[in-house]
Amino acid sequence: xxxxxxxxxxxxxxxxxxxxxxxxxxxxxxxxxxxxxxxxxxxxxxxxxxxxxxxxxxxxxxxxxxxxxxxxxxxxxxxxxxxxxxxxxxxxxxxxxxxxxxxxxxxxxxxxxxxxxxxxxxxxxxxxxxxxxxxxxxxxxxxxxxxxxxxxxxxxxxxxxxxxxxxxxxxxxxxxxxxxxxxxxxxxxxxxxxxxxxxxxxxxxxxxxxxxxx
Length: 214
Description:
Layout: H1 4-105, H2 109-131, H3 135-155, E1 158-160, E2 173-179, E3 190-195, E4 198-200, E5 203-206, E6 208-213
Parallel strand pairs: 2-6
Antiparallel strand pairs: 1-4, 3-6, 4-5
Helix pairs in contact: 2-3
C-alpha cells in the first residue's frame, strides 16, 4: 500500500507540473501578443512611409507639369518670333529684288536725259536740210552737234583710245586685217584705224579695230 507521505509527494509534483504548464501557456500568449503588436506597428510605419512616398511623387509630378508648361510657353514665343522674322525677311527680299530691277531698268535715265537735247539738235538739222541750200551753214550745224555730243561723252567719262606712234597693243587694239608695207618701221604696227575704240574712265569700253602692217 502507498503510504501517506508518498501520496502527498505525488500530489505536490502534479501541482507543480500544472503550474509549470500554466506559466508556459501564459509566456507563449504573451510572446504571441508582443509579436502581433510589433507586426502591427511595422505595418503602421510602412503605411506611413507609403503615404509619404505617394505624397512626394505627387509633388514631383506637379513640378514636372509646371516645367513642361513653362517650356511650352517659351517654345510658342520662339515660334512666334521665328514666323515674324521669316515674314520680315521675305518682305525685305521682295523689296530689294524690286529695287534692283528698277535700278537696272532706269540706271541709264540720267545718261539718256542728257542725250535727248542732242537728238533735238539732230531733228532741227534734218528739217533745215530739206529747206536750205546753204551747205556751209548746214555743215556748221552738224559740226556744232558733233562737238556737243563729243563734250557729252567726255563728261560721261568716255574718251577715245589713242594709237601712240602706231604701236599695236593687244590690250586695247583688235587686228581685223594685215596689209603689206614697204617701210620696215611700219611692220607690226598700226597703219590704219577701221573703227575707233573708247575708254570708260580706265576700262576699255570698245577695242579699236585696226589694220596692222606686215
